[in-house]
Amino acid sequence: MNNAVARAFFSAPPDERAEVLVSDPQSDGLACKAGNKKCNSLFAEAECLSLVPLPCDLCCNEPRFCRDCCCILCSKTIDLKHGGYSYIKCEAMVNGYICGHVAHLNCALRSYMAGTVGGSIGLDAEYYCRRCDTKTFLVPHVTTLLKTCESIDSRDEIEKILNIAVCILRGSQKSNAKGLLNRIESAIKELKCGTSLEDIWKVKETDTVMSTDIFHNGNGELGPTNHQDLVDDKSCLEAVLSVSSDYRSEYLKIECEIDQVLQSLRKAQESEYKIAEEQLCSQKVYLRHLYQQLEKERSELPDRSPGNEADASLNAVLSRINQIKYEVMRLKEMEEVANGFGRTPKGVLKEYFGLEIED
User: Fold this and answer.
1) All residues at 6 or more sequence positions from 270 whose CB lies less than 8 Å from its CB, including other chains
2) Residue 57: exposed, middle, or buried by beta-carbon count in 10 A (0-12, 13-18, 19+)?
3) How far apart are CA 15 and CA 202, in angstroms?
4) Confidence band (pLDDT; 50, 70, 90) for 115?
5) Could you give the residue ranges of the DSSP H alpha helices within the chain?
């Protein structure tokens, strides 16, 4: 890279540096295999000369695949928007080489290669690189995402980033991941309630404690603080950290829980209504059929002369009437669900609606 290009490169914003190199005819032939003008490889020379990429005869043999800007999972290029929040780069050192492969976070989450995943992989707020089989702890990355949001004015973009962060942290057993997840979920609630962005990002006491205790080595434990007596008593420390000093966030959390309960109740009632509707309508149709049969059988009675055949027809009509009475009685029992499934006798629910209610 000549001096003029170097000056232009370092004076340009990060998102425009690649274009500086591409537009210069004397940029030593730097090019991206995927044809991406904003590929990291176009200015890798300026950033890191000492890191040699890991030899790769798998995905990197593909003619249009670039390890620096193509997702290892979907092969599509990454986006550097807002500091490149939407992808993760594997910076693991393997036999003296850097892996350097990148992946969209959404692709990794959908492929169960990021977040908290059980089974043979066993991830806890981590990213698993398919190329080098190395795990990367993602809490520091999520912390960066949170800081990135503070410089964005678009609420939609902020919510998109925060939702990715939630997917990464959800289910983690690491204490620092849990604390960060609570902070992010609180920010999402405030965002949806129309709280000003400035108020959302105000640093709270509990946030300060958690942010200073986050380790970057992936062990997920809280680090030492100046309050040695609290550190000695782990249960006391966790109790202190669990209490938020922001009443508004706590109230929003309670409000959200109540909304979820009401939604669940509505869904449960809708489910009960559908079951009742199906069975009651079925009984209604059956009774209509019986009444039609009775009408037909009664209309045939006057045309028959007295005798065994007439007696049999009369008995059939009487039997049909008794059957209708029985089914009407069953319908009356079924109609007890009008009081709600909770107040309906268990025998009725079991016989007519197929529901087993435990004591």
Assistant:
1) none
2) exposed
3) 28
4) very high
5) 3-11, 17-23, 44-47, 81-84, 105-110, 139-149, 155-169, 175-192, 197-200, 205-212, 228-232, 234-242, 247-299, 308-334, 346-353
Strand partners, 89: 102
- Tokens encoding 212: 């200073």
CB burial readout 95-122, b (16+ within 10 A) else e: eeebbbbbbbbbbbbeeebbbbbeeeee
Domain boundaries, the chain: 49-201, 259-353
The type of residue at 185 is: E
Residue among 58, 120, 141, 72 at smallest CA distance from 100: 72
Beta bridge partners of 226: none
Q: For 299-309, b where at least 16 C-beta lie within 10 A, e where not — what string?
A: eeeeeeeeeee
List 128's β-bridge partners, or say none. 135
pTM: 0.50
* Measured distance CA(337)–CA(348) in Å, rounded: 9
Report yes or no: 291 and 324 within 8 Å, Cβ to Cβ: yes
Q: Is residue 99 a contact partner of residue 127, using CB atoms and an 8 Å limit? A: no
Share of the chain above pLDDT 70, in %: 72
Question: What does each C-alpha distance from 74 to 70, 85, 89, 108 come to in angstroms?
Answer: 8, 17, 14, 10
pLDDT at residue 232 in the model:
45
CA distance 10 to 14: 8
Cβ-proximal residues to 106 (8 Å cutoff; 6+ apart), any chain: 86, 164
88, 61 in Cβ contact below 8 A? no
CA distance 287 to 324: 7
Question: pLDDT per residue over 266-302, tens digit each?
Answer: 877 888 888 888 899 998 999 999 999 888 888 877 6
DSSP code at position 222: P
Whether residue 126 is predicted with pLDDT greater than 90 in this model: the reply is yes
Query: How far from 41 is each of 1, 32, 128, 277, 348, CA to CA, in Å?
Result: 13, 7, 22, 63, 71
Beta partners for residue 126, in sequence order: 115, 137
